[in-house]
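re: ur msg from earlier - yeah i can do the flavin-adenine dinucleotide complex, just paste it... oh wait u already did. ok heres what im feeding in:
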Amino acid sequence: MRRADLVVVGAGVNGAATAWWAARSGLDVVLLDRFEAGHERGSSHGGVRIFRFAYPQAEYVALAQQARRLWRLVEEETGETLLEETGGIDFGWQPGVAATAAALAAAGAPHELLGPQEAAERFAGFAFDGPVLFHPNGGRSWAARSVAALTRAAAAHGAEVRFEEPVERIEVRGDEALAHTATDTFRTGRLVVAAGAWVADLLAGLVPLPRLRVTLEQPAHFRPLEDGLRWPSFIEHAADAAFSTYGLFEPGVGVKLGEHQVGPEVHPDRRGFEPDPVALARVSAHARRMLPGVEPIPVAVDTCLYTTTDDDDFVIDRVGPITVASACSGHGFKFGPATGRLIVEVAGGAPPPPRFALGR
Ligand SMILES: Cc1cc2nc3c(=O)[nH]c(=O)nc-3n(C[C@H](O)[C@H](O)[C@H](O)COP(=O)(O)OP(=O)(O)OC[C@H]3O[C@@H](n4cnc5c(N)ncnc54)[C@H](O)[C@@H]3O)c2cc1C
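and the outut:
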């Protein structure tokens, strides 16, 4: 039996950030993950993720602004480059672009609306058929590197980190929770479950979760036709979804391009890793349509899991000693350290933001 102030199940970006902030705040922390460090079975692995302030919702703009400050703190503590502000652009369905511009304006975040011609001159790798919103704080987060840095920083603040230690069962006894693994039991008044695609299995019967769809997503990388083109991170807005396609430049690999929330539903323990040729052909067609600056033949393919709510908002809330932290829906990485801090506050008794509350 190991007692701790706070125990975190899951060392992806959300769990690692929670452990970092909690240990940094002086708590006795244990961080557990079922797989080895750096595994590629969940949602936080690989090269890069889009960072942006640019959201139509004020709460996400504010959370991203906090995250930017905290990513810099993690960089200071670890000496790593984790967030690079290469600039970001939004285009496509104009009401979505306009709502995003309005939210940036309301938050005092720098941005400018470019005509399609001016945008094409500035970003010659793209084909635009309407106005383009440019925001300089957009860019890229380094994914696996950031998770490793957060985990290392948590350990540097005293957190006990155990990989290949699956939590097999969670039990609630009064105001405490017990996380049972094959070898140990961890007892705490603050159990954070940040288990990504596995959260529904782990919390079944313990926390009334909303519907969570786990899908297998498959972005690909394309080689630029020439060096020196400017590649901001990009979001293509759509009328029937938060966005339809997204992408960014990954140095050394190419331009990453993906479709949002189109993958097949899977169980995280019964999913494949082989690329789906039909999905690959679809992404290549998007590259041909919107990225004249790349060769529309994939040079690399990733597979990765989304855990999506019906309203695309996160679930961060507490039931007794258990705090659920499901911050994904395909857009959770960028907020890492800010979400981590929020999760620690909620586990400590603070009310969750209404947008993230259970039963909203
Ligand atoms: C293709 C793709 C593109 C994306 N693009 C972006 C982007 O551009 N920008 C952005 O901000 N976000 C993006 N995201 C979303 C982002 O990557 C996720 O929201 C984020 O990584 C979720 O992290 P997590 O910590 O919740 O989950 P995970 O990283 O999956 O971590 C959960 C962890 O829990 C562990 N676990 C599970 N069960 C147990 C157990 N029983 N015991 C112990 N440990 C357990 C797992 O091993 C895993 O390590 C993208 C996601 C995908 C898939």
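cool cool. The chain has eight helices and 23 strands. ping me if u need the other ligands too
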